[in-house]
Give the backbone structure.
Amino acid sequence: MTKAAPERHLVTRIGWLRAAVLGANDGIVSTASLIVGVAAAPTTTASGILLAGTAGLVAGAMSMAAGEYVSVASQADTEAADLRRESRELIEQPVFEHEELARIWAGRGVELDLARRVAGQLMAADALGAHARDELGISATTRARPVQAAFTSAAAFTVGAAMPLAMAVVTPRAHLVLAVSLASLLFLALLGAVGARTGGAPVGRATLRVTLWGAIAMALTAAIGRLVGIAV
């Protein structure tokens, strides 16, 4: 008999996929909006635009890394506190914890006597792991990983931001706003499609969502850059 290949579920990608899509999307939108907003001011020079775009790339990547690390680290701290409390409760009141786990399985449709036997076997194998998974909703797949999230977000932001910045380098000053805007919308549409495909989500909806918000962001910053540039 041929051994079945192990199933691969899309949820295993959730940790790095969320950080990667968020980072790349933010890199494209924020950097493109910054470049378009600065370039919309009539008096801005090409060197000034590139300086602003480069500074935005570096600052944005560091901000994404720090923000993701702090956010996910807070989640990891909460998970660790819950696991410590659960570990203590397993020592202090094992009978109650056994019944609690059995009731969880019974609530999923397992007959109560069988649920108690299942709970007993699970706790005999790995009591804390069983309660972490079934009571707290913490698993190895979805557990918070601050360093991974920080590096993924920073790298994805840098890649995303490099795309509109590269367009600003190769595009003449007179056509820069239009070229960066159109190229960035194309990049966003591609990002939305790839992210949706990787995560198993509807491609059309994800593509429209990221493209629409990117267009709004660039339109607003261009308008503000134009108004402020004229006033100054």
Summary: Residues 49 and 229 are 13 Å apart (CA to CA).
